[in-house]
Design brief:
The complex is a heterodimer of chains A (336) and B (296). With 336 residues, chain A is of the alpha/beta class. Helix content of chain A is 33%, strand content 22%. In chain A, helix 1 runs parallel beside helix 2, helix 1 runs parallel beside helix 10 and helix 3 packs across helix 4. Classes of the chains: A alpha/beta (336), B alpha/beta (296). Chains A and B meet through helix 4, helix 5, strand 8, helix 7 and strand 11 of A and helix 3, helix 4, helix 5, helix 6 and strand 7 of B. Strand 8 of chain A pairs antiparallel with strand 7 of chain B, so a sheet runs across the interface.
């Protein structure tokens, strides 16, 4: 089941960001509640019930959709919190919930059969057998695929499942399979799976030293910067480390995923939706990225053959990219 | 409690692997997990070789489980998965929901730690599909485990990763190939050079992680030998030791002696230290950062 038009799914970390995304051409926005039920559990971010209600009203009035991310794994002592979040999503009229935990999907499917279910990227489904498991068990309608597959692998996956596929198009790049990374809890105690955070701000320390500016995560040296270098947030997989006497970005450079040039291919493949990462980013980021991607998608859908990426788009996206660098990530196989 | 040996997470040459499992046939271990769980490019042992090893281990009185790859990307991976799931002789550890789909309602299976079972609802769901045993996620604490086991409806065995460098993350990218400026598709099988993985340190020399192809492990060795009594109290049925290049047999013997109360956890802990490739951590069990060590 492929929809005619590829959907642009934009991040809404707050009500202003949500309105900005809608105003600049998002087909859907995705949001989370203000707790550990979602994978961007940061202070000052996300939605109270009242804000969520207003967000849904605003989006629906303009004919757009709202998706609710409930994509952490319910912890043993907190089932009630995740269950309530599902009930609230149904009550608020969310267009879909984005889930990772099978137990929670079972609850949602049984209790709210009309609530549309999407499989979160945190569900780590990288093959059609896994996606079909969630489809047969819980009737999921869409799966967000981890940022680890090459495009040819995505095509193979799509041939084996009736479930719609949503891909990440732009934003922060997880090098690890989402849902299968415990590096953050190893270093700090909190991870995306357990607390909805990665390299949490409360564990970050910046320190000026004679050797340079140092960033630490729970005391672990993640990077050290020379005066002329621009410092970045110490996401632990994007630090410089020593392997056999060589110091380099041993896991990944600070760079953002940008798949703008793959757009014709993604549209021809029948990808249902393109997701923009960044609920933790500002409304200004949401505005810039949504505007560029709306223009690019419209231009590409008018004429896929002669679509060309405008340098102005790349420049605009470059400004909001991590470390001002962009990559095609795993979609381009040699990256691996 | 039963004692299990996890699958070899590193890439060892063929002779080393056969020699290792010859030794394990005589080791005091109840359950042995076999198979390539990390990278499909590691081909020195094919599935048939593992099945042959499995026959020998069963003859030596071991329970054998064939473990599936954690990251299934290509059609080739899916085909291998189908062959493992369809083997009619040995129990299978499912390390991806795709594997669960192929095993569900057909044959009892082991639900691996990468399935992220964090609550009793999901545990019961998998038990209902035929999971006879589950392996707790490495991130999970003793308190969280106790809570899940208290709330669950179905009876199935609980296994805990109790010794070894922690498998923390999986990626499409191969970090060992990257270290050698090679692409993954032309990795020259550099993993063969690192029998216990490739050390990653901070810029001030603190051992932090271990690169093992597409898998990232802890630098420290997660070690719960000093906590075996608390594992027992929490309701753990199976204790897993992860293979390392040297001393795995001696480590299993120490675990066995401790489980049979011939040595105390404290004695076992002091004896195991000389056999370890790095210092101990146990933070996860205590609901702390995994790299911490909480002494009793």
């Amino acid at each position: 089941m492929q929809s005619d038009k590829i959907e642009l799914v934009c991040p809404a970390g707050s009500l202003p960001a949500l309105k900005t995304a809608i105003d600049h051409g998002a087909d859907c926005v995705y949001m989370g509640f203000r707790d550990d039920t979602n994978a961007r559990n940061f202070t000052g971010l996300n939605f109270s019930l009242d804000n969520a209600k207003e967000g849904v009203r605003y989006a629906h009035a303009k004919g757009r959709k709202v998706l609710l991310a409930l994509n952490t794994y319910p912890q043993a002592d907190g089932w009630q919190r995740w269950k309530n979040a599902i009930d609230n999503a149904a009550e608020l009229g969310m267009d879909a919930v984005i889930l990772a935990d099978p137990g929670l999907m079972q609850y949602a499917a049984k209790t709210h059969p009309d609530l549309r279910l999407h499989l979160s990227v945190q569900g780590s489904a990288t093959n059609y057998e896994a996606i079909n498991f969630y489809h047969e068990m819980f009737g999921i309608r869409r799966a967000v695929v981890p940022r680890v597959l090459a495009l040819a692998q995505v095509e193979q996956l799509m041939a084996g499942t009736p479930v719609e596929i949503e891909l990440f198009g732009f934003g922060g790049l997880c090098v690890m399979v989402e849902g299968r990374c415990a590096l953050s809890s190893y270093a700090t105690g909190d991870s995306p799976n357990t607390r909805g955070v990665c390299s949490p701000p409360r564990s970050v320390r910046w320190q000026e030293t004679p050797k340079g500016l140092e960033s630490r995560l729970n005391g672990i040296l993640i990077d050290r910067y020379d005066p002329e270098e621009k410092a970045g947030y110490p996401t632990l997989c994007k630090g410089r480390f020593d392997v056999e006497g060589e110091t380099y970005y041993a896991i990944e450079e600070p760079a953002s995923l940008n798949t703008l040039e793959l757009l014709p291919k993604l549209i021809n493949m029948g990808i249902a939706a393109i997701k923009i990462e960044g609920r933790q980013r500002s409304p200004a980021y949401v505005e810039q990225v949504t505007r560029v991607w709306r223009q690019a998608i419209d231009s590409c859908q008018r004429d896929t053959q002669s679509f060309a990426v405008k340098p102005a788009w790349m420049a605009e996206l470059g400004k909001v990219s991590e470390g001002q660098q962009q990559t095609l990530g795993a979609y381009y196989r040699p990256w691996k | 409690m039963k004692l299990a040996l996890g699958p070899v997470l590193y890439y060892w040459d063929r002779d080393t692997m056969f020699y290792f499992y010859d030794q394990m046939a005589d080791a005091p271990v109840d359950i042995i997990y076999l198979g390539e769980t990390v990278c499909s490019r590691r081909h020195l042992l094919r599935l048939q070789d593992y099945l042959d090893v499995a026959e020998r281990l069963v003859a030596a009185g071991k329970e054998v489980v064939i473990a599936t790859q954690a990251l299934i990307e290509s059609e080739y991976d899916v085909k291998t998965l189908r062959r493992i799931a369809g083997n009619e002789k040995f129990r299978v550890e499912a390390n991806d929901m795709g594997a669960v789909r192929l095993l569900a309602n057909k044959t009892p299976f082991v639900a691996g730690s990468t399935l992220n079972i964090f609550n009793s609802q999901t545990l019961d769901l998998l038990a209902g599909l035929g999971a006879a045993r589950w392996v707790m996620p490495v991130e999970m604490s003793r308190a969280a485990l106790a809570s899940v086991l208290h709330q669950r409806q179905f009876a199935l065995e609980t296994e805990v990763f109790a010794y070894g460098r922690l498998p923390l993350a999986y990626s499409a990218r191969c970090f060992t190939a990257r270290h050698h400026n090679l692409q993954k598709d032309d990795c020259q099988f550099k993993c063969l050079d690192y029998e216990d993985g490739l050390a990653l340190k901070t810029r001030e020399g603190q051992p932090f992680l271990t690169l093992n192809g597409i898998q990232t492990q802890s630098a420290l060795v997660h070690n719960l030998i000093g906590e075996l009594d608390t594992l027992q109290d929490a309701g753990v049925d199976v204790v897993r030791v992860s293979p390392q290049a040297h001393h795995s047999g001696e480590i299993l013997r120490l675990f066995r002696e401790c489980m049979e109360q011939r040595v105390t956890p404290a004695q076992a802990f002091s004896q195991i230290e000389g056999l370890m490739p790095a210092a101990s951590c146990n933070g996860y069990w205590h609901d702390k950062p995994g790299l911490e060590f909480i002494s009793r």
